[in-house]
Amino acid sequence: MAKITYIEHNGTEHVVDVPNGMTVMEGARDNGIPGIDADCGGACACSTCHVYVDPAWTDRLPAKDDMEIDMLDFAWNPGETSRLTCQLRVTDALDGLVVRMPEKQI
Fold this sequence. Notes:
The mean pLDDT is 97. This protein is an alpha+beta fold and 106 residues long. It has helices spanning 24-30, 66-72; strands spanning 2-7, 13-18, 50-53, 82-84, 98-100. The N and C termini lie far apart (30 Å). The protein has a five-stranded mixed β-sheet with strand order 2-1-5-3-4. Strand 1 and strand 2 form a beta hairpin. Helix content is 13%, strand content 21%. The protein is built from two helices and five strands; from the N terminus they run ββαβαββ.
């Protein structure tokens, strides 16, 4: 299990325990965290679970695959630390992960 901090665009923080094997997106969805829409349900077919990963974590996450890179082109205001939370599978190694939601999802 990993404790993940989700920070809304307005600064509101939500700290939740997410079981191993789930995705960071599922952790947000199952805990009612606003700001992650997850319209495609985690199929990496949209960009509505886009977040900015805290810079301290960017090198500690698995590399983006080609599909995620392509989908991030559709995200609102993607940046260097942008990730799709449906592509981040939770393990003990993600304990303490901090993600920030963009102003909006498209």
